[in-house]
Amino acid sequence: MSTPAKALPQLSPAARIAQTLIDDLSPIVSPPDVCLKVNALLQDERASIEDFAAVVIRDPGLTARLLRLVNSPYYGMPSRVDTVSRAVMLVGMAELQKLVCSICAVEAFSRLSSAVTNMNSFWRHGVYTGLMAQAIAKRLRVLHPERLFVAGLLHDIGTLLINRRYPEIAEETIRASRGDEHMLRALEQQELGFDHSQLGGMMLTNWRLPVTIADAIGWHHAPDQAEHAPVDAAILNVADTIANYSGTGSFCEMVAPQGDFDRMVFTKLGLPIDFDADQLMDEVDRQFVETIYLLVT
What we know:
Blueprint (H helix, E strand, L loop, with lengths): L12 H13 L7 H10 L6 H8 L3 H11 L13 H8 L1 H17 L9 H21 L6 H9 L2 H9 L1 H11 L3 H12 L3 H11 L4 H8 L11 H17 L16 H7 L8 H19 L1
Helix pairs in contact: 2-3, 2-6, 3-5, 4-6, 5-6, 6-8, 7-8, 7-14, 7-16, 8-13, 9-10, 9-12, 10-11, 12-13, 13-14, 14-15
């Protein structure tokens, strides 16, 4: 007698709606092959600099933007870099993944712009949060801090999905939250049964980005629930909070009030609750204009 097949877990109605939204919009923001191949190479211990370069140079537009980035003052190379292989050798394969994913994501997700979304504000917030997350990770001596830039850059892509499909709800919740993303998340949950952080994590799972990035983004408002990357989610939580009261990197035109850090998050990261972010903000401010110009223009 055969053993009955184990029943698959049933999605809640809200989760089914969220998955349908992801499925419907995925063709618009599907990841370019170059992004998937670079991610795959990074997992291959046998991959060489030449392997990475061979993938990137198949995309002339990406090659041009990559070389533009590497030759910028942000990297401060002593001489001009004119080949992808030299760029990979100088910045490293992990940094190359950061750059390729960032360039591809900005291009892909900018297609989701709507009347509700100020795309300039959106990418300013993403870049600022990414730079801040990377700076915090370096201070905490987290391994491979460059991945935190990618996570910060993309942490709010779920808002673009909501704005595209439910513009009235998006406009209402953004206005009511008055610059407070934690309140925005609660309002989205109330109206839709899911929120922008969960949607973002689901979309990046579809992109086949590393599970740590998708998990950190999916739980950046509730790091204690992250399964694979609780420390990364906690870093994103702090970076996001700082960005929103910075003015420069606020997620909307309204600047959030300062000082609403989550004490549990600070405990997880080993940061003092009277943590002074001014030094990190000065560091990020010096990098911000150059980075936003190179990525988004």
